[in-house]
Amino acid sequence: MTFLEVFKFEFKNVIKNIPILMTSIGAVILYSFFYPQPYVNEVVQTLRVSVVDLDKSDLSRKLIFSLNSSPQIEVYRQDLSSSDAKKALLENKVSGLIIIPAHFKKDVLLKKSPTIALGADANYFLIYGSIVEGALKSILTQAASIKVSNLLMNNIPLESAKESFTSFSLKSIYLFNPDMSYTYYILPAVFILILQQTILIGLGMLGASYNENKYKTDAAIWMKISSRVIIFASLLFINTLYYFGFTFEFFHIPHLANLTDMITLMIPFILSTVFLGILFGALLKTQELVTPIILFTSLPIMFSAGFVWPIEAIPEFITYLSLFFPCTPAIQGFLKLNQMGADFDSVLVQYGILWLQAILYLLLSIYVLRKKDYYN
């Protein structure tokens, strides 16, 4: 068989295999819109809380008004007891509760430190964090106002009162993610994992289908591998440009890396992924095994890649094991280039690992295919 005949044979089998097309093309497009949806509304606002005012003073009412003025909190109800507020929280009528203690105003006037109880649903970190943030801002603002007022009553000038209350000012600068956005943080890394897994499924199904049907041919191994590399590397390249181009623009994810650096890192990532997919398909006997294996490995790969959980907190053997998957060094490299604005010298380690993977999986693919008596 000539190379052109082998290429046509491979291309025909890819086009005719609907699951491969649905996974390698359809799933990529679907995930680009489906996966980001939970993170679109990143700022949780106007969460309903119940306030229990055991003091019923003008100062406690002022605090309640301040809480209700917070963008994160809506004072949805005021219960007479903590048990009523807790019941409302358990019945999901509210997302949190705030209890203002008895003698709140008296303790403040006596310069004691009253304790305001705060409870929130910690099953959802965004909800819990927003309620805590809104409540703390309101409470600390009221505390500052009271302390400054007490200083003014002692004939201390306003500016001096402010300075004595706040001895320093804090200015927070969030590096690499100025908006504290889940979209900027999660999507770039997850997209790389999706790109890898979809191509592995496609190549796994293709190779497994050859093993099932035991296609026989006299085609050279380099023709088989080269044909699949051309087809799936082209597909992966287009999918990568789609994710890092259109999808990034659609969800307003910033681009800090230049195109040359991105493509330079992209090349070994594409090759190593395709060679791993060829090896993966050559080892499987049936197509039914492909999807369960990929789904089973997706979460462990994601958590060991170092963007969901700090690498320092992951056992070393898991960290080293994760480096056998192309997406791990690719995620670390792409995040440095595109999200942190690093130069290419900073990702040379990841770049080298990807090339080593490409060579390793190419050699293993050749070895496994040579052991086969039929097409794959």
Which key phrases capture this entry?
376 residues; alpha/beta; abc type-2 transporter like fold; 2 domains; 4-stranded mixed beta sheet; 14 helices; 4 strands; elongated
Give a verbal description of the structure.
It is a single chain. With 376 residues, the protein is of the alpha/beta class. 64% of the residues lie in helices and 6% in strands. It has helices at 3-16, 18-34, 58-69, 82-90, 104-109, 125-153, 158-165, 182-213, 221-250, 259-283, 290-304, 316-322, 327-339, 348-370, and strands at residues 47-53, 73-79, 96-100, 117-120. The protein has a 4-stranded mixed sheet, with helices on both faces. It starts with a helix and ends in a 6-residue tail after the last helix.
Gyration radius (Cα, Å) is: 29 Å
Task: Note the main sheet.
Answer: 4 strands, mixed
Q: How many domains? A: 2
SS content category: alpha/beta
Query: Could you spell the SSE succession in H and E letters?
Result: HHEHEHEHEHHHHHHHHH
Point out poorly predicted stretches: none
Number of helices: 14
N-to-C span: 15 Å
- What is the mean predicted local confidence, pLDDT? 84
Shape descriptor: elongated
